[in-house]
Amino acid sequence: MSRLSHSEVHMVHRIGWLRAAVLGANDGLVSTSSLVVGVAAAGSGQTEVLIAALAGLVAGAMSMAAGEYVSVSSQTDAEKADVARETRELAETPEAELEELTQIYVGRGLDRELAEKVAVQLTERDALGTHARDELGISETVTAHPVQAAIVSALTFAVGAVIPLIVALLAPPTQITLVVAVSTIVGLAVLGGLGASAGGAGIVRGALRVTLWGALAMAATAAVGMLFGVTTG
């Protein structure tokens, strides 16, 4: 009897870049749209709105890149320190490290004899890699990449931010607030659905989640803009 080929597609390898991409695009769209809506609600002209949107795009992209780089670099430094410490322990106390690995497998459900055999075989093959994966939870799949995360965050922020900028440029000056708000809601729904789909989660739930918080952000800045407009008007 022939054996059918079996293939599986998992999403965990996408976690690093997907998180940065979704966060960047969502922040770019929400923050720039909110900025446009707030400035327009204050009674500013189209030129002032466009300047504010462009400044928000540039500042936001640079801020996202810097913040993501610092954050992920800190994670990378912690991972490197843990691996370095594990390397020393393997060289200085190999028996204790073997016992530690054995206990990990016992805790996962293997009996003592089998757990020890697995620990010995994996240690002989790749002691550091095994401890990094099973003791520290570090693997190539989830290893942090600061530069990659920073670039993806900046680019995706800019992609998200350019949408309200273009809409504000093309919209009638008297309807910028309404047109940008509506287009942003649609964009957030699409973005949330795509992000959820790429991560293997529910599309509707992902779309509703980002749409709700985006709408709240625009409502808050619109309120501020209208209050400022009334106060200075």
Can you summarize this structure?
This protein is mostly helical and about 230 residues long. It has helices at about 15-40, 45-90, 95-105, 110-135, 145-170, 175-200, 205-230. The chain has seven helices and no strands.
What would your notes on this structure say?
- The protein has 233 residues and is mainly α.
- It is 81% helix and 0% strand.
- Residues 6-13 have low confidence and may be disordered.
| CA radius of gyration | 25 Å
Global outline: elongated
What low-confidence regions span 5 or more consecutive residues with pLDDT below 50? Answer: 6-13
What is the count of β-strands? Answer: 0
The fraction of residues assigned to DSSP E strands is under 5%
Helix/strand-derived category reads mainly alpha
Q: What string gives the helices and strands in order?
A: HHHHHHH
- Output the number of helix runs: 7
Q: Secondary-structure map with pairings?
A:
Layout: H1 15-41, H2 46-92, H3 94-107, H4 112-134, H5 146-170, H6 176-198, H7 203-232
Helix pairs in contact: 1-2, 1-5, 1-6, 1-7, 2-3, 2-4, 2-5, 3-4, 5-6, 6-7
Keywords for this structure?
233 residues; mainly alpha; 7 helices
